[in-house]
Amino acid sequence: MPWRRAWHDALYASGSGFYRSGDGPAAHFATAANGPAGAALAEALLALWHRSHPRPPTVVVDVGAGHGELAAHLAALLDRAGDGGASATTRVVAVDVTARPAALPDRVEWLVSPGGAALPHALDEALDEAFVGALVVAHEWLDVVPCTVAEVGTDGALHELLVDPASGIETLGDALVGDDLSWCERYWRATEPGDRVEVGRSRDEAWSGLLGRVRSGLVVAVDYGHTTGTRPPAGTLTGYAGGRQVVPVPDGACDVTAHVAVDSLEADERVRQRDVLDALGLTGATPAHDLARADPLAYLSALQRSSALTALRDREGYGAFWWVVRRVRPADVP
User: Where in 199-321 does DSSP place strands (E)?
Assistant: First the structure.
């Protein structure tokens, strides 16, 4: 079957999809949303909001929320904000395909998503109330929106790539045509036999669909990706299971993911995470040693924050992530 269909079933099929069965991704890998790094990431997102908005958002939405770790960090920061309690009224909504995690704070609302590009209708209601504005975060969401995978055949044409879901064995299908081919001609040209393309059109549509739900505010996609001129000839499709990278067999036993062509997404800014943190003044500087003597607990807290920001800035790791930023103003909405 086409990779896009097999990929979607492998992740989101009821009862058997990787994101719906067992302990899901949390049993296999951690993301920047976990632990102290997640708290620092939440701090950066709210700092980005306040750089252009004097008032707190009406609602904060975390799309692809996993077990709600980032949403919980955002809620905790909003509750501690020194703005006379204004941030405490901000709704915090997490969206993911699984049932509400038992340990999630009551402060965070939970919406169950169909999976992939599809989002729940209840999200519209939350965003319709965002008269002041919504801060919407899609952290590592677009990379698991399944897309068409294609390969250049010996005839020099791009062909849709088919896969056996049980074994992962691939074969070439029909030549790529229509909108997918047009997307490749614009964003990811491939001409050498064996070159592969992950056609980002489905990610573009998912992103546009999310933007279209926001009346006013700031929408941020945080993901690993590439741009024209840096597209990898072999593609980026891969799998993760048990804490390591594996061959992407779409049988539901592993995560299947591919980097995002970030320059095809509608955006006001596309910036590496390390550069965003620099611009926000979140440098991860080590706290002064004098603080260790004056207030040991405050020193340990500051040291933890510094270590988390250092991890988020790592050029070989999270720091290479892209932030795709779109500002939605009321005049932008029909």
Answer: 217-223, 225-226, 238-241, 244-246, 255-257, 260-261, 269-272
Q: What does the pLDDT look like over 272-323, one tens digit per residue? A: 999 999 999 998 888 787 887 787 787 788 788 889 999 999 999 999 999 9
- Identity (one letter) of the amino acid at 280? L
Domain ranges of the chain: 7-147+199-284+315-332
Is pTM, for the whole model, over 0.85? Answer: yes
pLDDT per residue as tens digits for the range 132-143:
699 999 999 999
Q: Could you tell me the strand order of the sheet in which 244-246 lies? A: 244-246, 238-241, 255-257
Residue at 226: amino acid letter: H
Grouping H, G, I as helix, E, B as strand and the rest as coil, residue 90 is coil
Tokens of 242: 């048990």
**Which residues lie below 8 Å from residue 145, measured CB to CB, with a gap of 6+?**
116, 117, 202, 203, 206
Token pair of 245 as six digits? 């990278």
Residues 6+ apart with CB under 8 A from 65: 71, 94, 95, 96
> Within 10 A of 159 (CB to CB), how many other CB atoms are there?
17
Question: How far is it, in rounded angstroms, from Cα 156 to Cα 178?
Answer: 17
Residue 99 Cα distances to 94, 208, 210, 223, 236, angstroms: 11, 26, 21, 24, 30
Q: In whole angstroms, what is the distance from residue 174 CA to residue 160 CA?
A: 6
Contact criterion met (CB below 8 Å) for 216 and 132: yes
Closest by Cα among 162, 228, 235 to 196: 235
**Phi and psi, residue 132, nearest 5°:** -75, -40
- Integer Cα distance of 12 and 116 in angstroms: 7
The answer to whether 126 and 18 are in contact (CB under 8 A) is: no
Single out the residue of 193, 216, 211, 202 nearest to residue 128, CA to CA.
216
CATH number assigned to the domain covering 7-147+199-284+315-332: 3.40.50.12710
Residues whose CB is less than 8 angstroms from the CB of residue 266 and which lie 6 or more positions away in sequence, other chains included: 204, 207, 208, 211, 326
